[in-house]
Design goal:
binds flavin mononucleotide, Rossmann fold, five-stranded antiparallel sheet, 23 strands, about 525 residues, five-stranded parallel sheet, alpha+beta, Chorismate synthase, AroC fold
C-alpha cells in the first residue's frame, strides 16, 4: 500500500511526508523530484520543474508530470507527496489514488500565503490578484480530493512541528479500519458469513479449501439439519427447512480450490411480530449495542446478531469436518449441562438420539423436562456444551497470539449467547495444586489430560477438550423493563418463536467453529513445516 499525501503549495506535504516516511521506514518519493530525476536521466540536464515548464511549455510539462505520476503509481509501500498539478488531472489522480491511502493536508490560506511570500511566488501567482488566484487553486484541489481522502489533516502553526507524528497515528487507525473484516475468520482457510435473520438468505463463503475434496449438498445438509429450527419440542417452532445450495467452488462433486459459496434461503420469516418493537431494545439482545455502534439496525429478529447467522458457519464447518475426517480427526460436542442438570456419563453414540443432545442417557430426560418447564413458565434456561476433538496431531497452533487455545476461544466466543470457554480443566485448574493438574507422561503419552490437549498454545496430540457456557435465551415472553431509541422507559415481552434453551442447537455450531479452526491450523502447519 502507498500513502499519498497531497495538499496545496506550502502546506508542508514534503516535509511532513519525508518525516513520516522516516518513522514508517518507507521510501519517500515526491512527484516533482521524480519528474526532475527522469528529465535528468533523459537529457543529462538537471533542471527544476519550474525551469522545465518554462522551457517546454505547460502542455509538455503536464505530460511529463502524468508520466512521472504513472511510474510512481506502479510502486508499492512508499510515501508519496504530490501537489495540485498532479491531482487535478482526473486520470493521474485515479492512478495515484487506486490502492493507496490518500491524505489531504489542508491549512488556513493566510498561513500558506504568508509562507509563500518567504519561499518565493511561482510566476503564475505574481500578479495583482495572486492571492485570489491561489485561493481558487486551493479550493479546486480540495474539491477534487477531499471526498477521496482517507484522512484530512489540517496543519496549523501550532501543530506543524509534530504533524508527522499526529498523522502517523491517524494512518495507523485508518489502516486498522481497512484491515477489519469482522464477518471473516481464518487465515489460510477463511470463512465469511453473510445474511440476516429476516433477509432473503443466509450463508457462507469458504475460501482456501484444497481442490479434489469430495463434497455434496447432502454432506452439508446433514449438519444443517442438526442446527435447523423446528427440529423438536425443545427448539424454536420457526419451521425452516434450511436447504443447502452450493453456488460455487464444487464441480462434479469435488472442490475446485475456488471459494465455496453455500446459500440457505430464509423461508419461514414472520417479521410482523417485530413491528411493535421496532424502536425498543430487547433485554439480553444486541439491539442496544448495534444501535449505539452503527446508528442503524435490522430490528427483525436481530438481523445479523441472530442465531440464524450460524447456519452459514455450520455449512462451512461441514466442509471442514469432511476434510478433517479424511485426516482422522473427529469433532463431537454435546450438552453436558442444562438448567443446572449435569450429565456425568459421556456416551457419544447417544447424543443424536435425544432432543437436548446430551451424552448421558440418565440426565437427558431431566434436561428436556427443565427446558419444557422453562417454556411453560415463559422463561428460558442456559447450559454447558462440552467438545472433544480426537485425532488432532501434535504441533498445531501458533504462539504467541495465535495459540490454539486462543484461536478456539475466539472462534467459539464469536457465537451468539456464548459467555465462557474453558480448555481442559479450565476454571477448575485454579483450585488444583500443580501435582494434581500436571499431566504426567510415560511411554510417549500423557497419563491425564488436564491441559485439554494444548500446552503452550500448541496441540499435544491428546484429545482437545473444551467447555462452553451458553446463556439462557434472551427472548422470553415475560414483561421486562427496557428503553426505546429515544431513551423513554418501556416494557417488553418478546413475542415470536424462540428456543427456550439454545444449547441443543448451538452444539453443531460449536463443532463447526472448532472444525474451521483445526482445518485452518492444519493448513497453516503444512506451510510452516516443522519437526512433526
Ligand atoms: C444457534 C443459536 C440460536 C439462537 N436462538 C435464539 C432464539 O431463538 N431467541 C433468542 O432470543 N436468542 C437466540 N440466540 C441468541 C442470540 O442470538 C444472542 O444471545 C443475542 O444476539 C445477544 O448476543 P450475546 O448473547 O452473544 O451477547 C441464538 C443463538 C444461537 C447461536
Amino acid at each position: 500500500m502507498k500513502i499519498v499525501l497531497t495538499g496545496p503549495k506550502c502546506s508542508g506535504k514534503s516535509t511532513i511526508g519525508g518525516r513520516l516516511a522516516e518513522i514508517l521506514g518507507l521510501p519517500f518519493i515526491e512527484t516533482d523530484s521524480h519528474l526532475e530525476d527522469r528529465y535528468c536521466a533523459e537529457t543529462g540536464d538537471r533542471r527544476s520543474c519550474r525551469e522545465i515548464c518554462a522551457d517546454e511549455g505547460e502542455v509538455s510539462f503536464r505530460a511529463r508530470e502524468a508520466d512521472a505520476a504513472a511510474d510512481i503509481a506502479a510502486r508499492d509501500w512508499c510515501v508519496v507527496a504530490t501537489g495540485g498539478g498532479t491531482m487535478l488531472d482526473p486520470e493521474t489522480r485515479s492512478l495515484l489514488v487506486s490502492g493507496s491511502m490518500l491524505v489531504l493536508i489542508k491549512a488556513p490560506v493566510h498561513l500558506l500565503w504568508e509562507r509563500m511570500q518567504k519561499t518565493g511566488l511561482p510566476p503564475f501567482l505574481r500578479c495583482a490578484d495572486g492571492l485570489s488566484e491561489y485561493q481558487e487553486r486551493v479550493r479546486r484541489l480540495y474539491e477534487a480530493t477531499a471526498h477521496l481522502a482517507d484522512i484530512v489533516f489540517t496543519v496549523t502553526s501550532e501543530n506543524e512541528g509534530e504533524a508527522h507524528l499526529l498523522l502517523a497515528d491517524r494512518i495507523a487507525e485508518a489502516t486498522l479500519r481497512r484491515m477489519r473484516s469482522p464477518s471473516s475468520f481464518g487465515e489460510v482457510v477463511r470463512v465469511t458469513t453473510f445474511g440476516e435473520s429476516h433477509g432473503p438468505a443466509v450463508g457462507a463463503v469458504l475460501d482456501g479449501v484444497p481442490p479434489m475434496v469430495e463434497i455434496s449438498e447432502a454432506d452439508i445438509q446433514r449438519e444443517l439439519d442438526r442446527r435447523r429450527p423446528g427440529q423438536s419440542a425443545v427448539t424454536t417452532p420457526r419451521s425452516e427447512e434450511d436447504r443447502a445450495h452450493i453456488l460455487s467452488g464444487v464441480f462434479e462433486g469435488r472442490t475446485t480450490g475456488a471459494p465455496i459459496c453455500v446459500l440457505v434461503y430464509n423461508r419461514d420469516q414472520d417479521p410482523s411480530k417485530y413491528e411493535a418493537i421496532r424502536e425498543v431494545f430487547r433485554p439480553g439482545h444486541a439491539d442496544f449495542t448495534f444501535w449505539k455502534k452503527y446508528g442503524i439496525r435490522d430490528h427483525r429478529g436481530g438481523g445479523r446478531s441472530s442465531g440464524r447467522e450460524t447456519a452459514g458457519r455450520v455449512a462451512a464447518g461441514a466442509v471442514a469436518r469432511k476434510i478433517l475426517a479424511e485426516r482422522g480427526i473427529t469433532i463431537t460436542a454435546f450438552a453436558q449441562e442444562i438448567a443446572g442438570v449435569r450429565g456425568e456419563v459421556e456416551d457419544l453414540g447417544f447424543i443424536e438420539r435425544n432432543p437436548v443432545r446430551a451424552a448421558d442417557p440418565a440426565a437427558a430426560g431431566l434436561m428436556e423436562e427443565a427446558v419444557l418447564r422453562a417454556r411453560a413458565d415463559k422463561d428460558s434456561v442456559g447450559g454447558v456444551v462440552k467438545l472433544i476433538a480426537r485425532g488432532v496431531p501434535a504441533g498445531l497452533g501458533d504462539p504467541v497470539f495465535f495459540k490454539m487455545d486462543a484461536r478456539l476461544a475466539m472462534a467459539i466466543f464469536s457465537i451468539g449467547a456464548v459467555k465462557g470457554v474453558e480448555i481442559g480443566s479450565g476454571f477448575d485448574a485454579a483450585r488444583m495444586g500443580g501435582s494434581e493438574n500436571n499431566d504426567h507422561m510415560r511411554d510417549g503419552a500423557f497419563l491425564s489430560n488436564n491441559a485439554g490437549g494444548i500446552l503452550g498454545g500448541i496441540t499435544t496430540g491428546a484429545d482437545i477438550t473444551l467447555r462452553v457456557a451458553v446463556k439462557p435465551t434472551p427472548s422470553i415472553f415475560r414483561e421486562q423493563e427496557t428503553i426505546d431509541t429515544r431513551g423513554a422507559a418501556r416494557t417488553v415481552a418478546v413475542e415470536g418463536r424462540h428456543d427456550p434453551c439454545i444449547v441443543p442447537r448451538i452444539v453443531p455450531v460449536v463443532e463447526a467453529m472448532a472444525a474451521l479452526v483445526l482445518l485452518d491450523a492444519l493448513e497453516i502447519q503444512s506451510k510452516i513445516g516443522g519437526a512433526g
